[in-house]
Design brief:
By secondary structure, the chain is mainly beta. Helix content is about 10%, strand content about 35%.
Length: about 190
Amino acid sequence: MRVRRGDTLFKIARAFNTTVGQIRKANHLQGDLIRPGERLDLGGAGGVSKKRTRHFEGELPIQGIRKRDIVASFGEKQDARHKRVVERHTGLDLRAREGTQILACANGVVRFVGDLSGYGRLVVLEHDGGWRSVYGPCDPNHIKVEVNEAVYAGQELARLGQGVERSKPALHFEIRRGEDAVDPAQHLRWN
């Protein structure tokens, strides 16, 4: 994880479910001096609790986004004429400009950075309690995190890239409990 201004070893250990001793040992630190921008290994703690929880609440993945910026919502889309499901949308698409900062919705650990057919370049975070969040399409030239890196809520993950099938840029954002997609709108703190 990257140290932010105001961080202390105690604050980091508490946020990522580890101990100051583990962080010191993993980084060969003699004392408590850390500097903003410095990368720290969390000592194999992984930063997330595997114990499954029912509740998850996160920050908005784009600063200043509002519900009116949702261009595609979660759920099944039906063909009104034939009354059958034609598409299942597993997240929210949020209108934003290409190059907009994509932010972590909660503390977690980066578990995947790569291309996925139909989505483009994605970043996937794992959070406490078996929750995951998915962000894409990301600009491949502006990915700010690496796999197994611990991140804070609000930390920049990447910049919004060009969509695979979209004419206008939008962030595709998912929240999953295990492998099951849930409605992200129900799990975010809206302004």
